[in-house]
Amino acid sequence: MLLSRHQVLARRERDPERLERSAYLLLSRIDTQGPMSIGQLAEAFGLDTSTVNRQTAALLRCGLAERVADPDGGMARKLRITAEGARRFAADREVNRSCLARVVADWSPEEIRELEDVLIRLNRSAEALEGRHWPRAEEDGARAACHPPVAQEPAPRTT
Question: Which of 30, 31, 59, 74 is most exposed, with the fewest beta carbons within 10 Å of its own?
Fold first, then answer.
């Protein structure tokens, strides 16, 4: 929570174009899962639809998302990220990653892997308690993007 709070407060002082936390979370879910209805978003976050309706209205006003017909042919309109929303979401994600990289800059690759493993376990345990799984990109690819590859010492020769 401290890390998250620090990032939120620090980033707004430096760049007023940064996304609000709720906008970032909604765009993150839509980015991962594809177009979603307000009802689907409310269910995904365990929020009342009126709360999500207000948050998505802000996304629409700012041009970060747009309403589209259900790609699967359903009756409900869904929200899709616009090009501007994708640009700002990607920029925010990169700032978040670079902030975290500065925090662990003097950690060993092993310590970073250990933190990743524990955070993955923590997130999955929280999801299990809530009964809500957060969809993810392929974990191997996501994990590789979090830190540079570790240089391996060559194996000793056996003759």
Answer: 74
- Dihedrals phi, psi of 19, to nearest 5 degrees: -75, 145
- Partners of 97 in the beta sheet? none
In the structure encoding, which two tokens stand for residue 132, read together?
């809500």
Q: Which residues contact 11 (CB under 8 A, 6 or more apart)?
A: 18, 92, 95, 99
Q: pTM for the whole thing?
A: 0.74
Q: Using the 8-state DSSP alphabet, how is residue 64 labeled?
A: S
Distances (CA, A) of 27 to 19, 22, 106: 10, 9, 31
Q: How far apart (Å, rounded) are the C-alpha atoms in residues 104 and 2?
A: 15
Rounded Cα–Cα distance for residues 96 and 151 (Å): 25
Q: Is 90 left (phi over 0), alpha (psi -120 to 50) or beta?
A: alpha
The DSSP 8-state label assigned to residue 34 in this structure reads: -
Express each pLDDT in 15-42 by its tens digit: 777 888 899 999 999 999 999 999 999 9
The residue to which tokens 């809500």 are assigned = 132
Q: How many CB atoms lie within 10 A of CB 88?
A: 21
Measure the CA–CA gap between 79 and 56, rounded to whole angstroms. 8
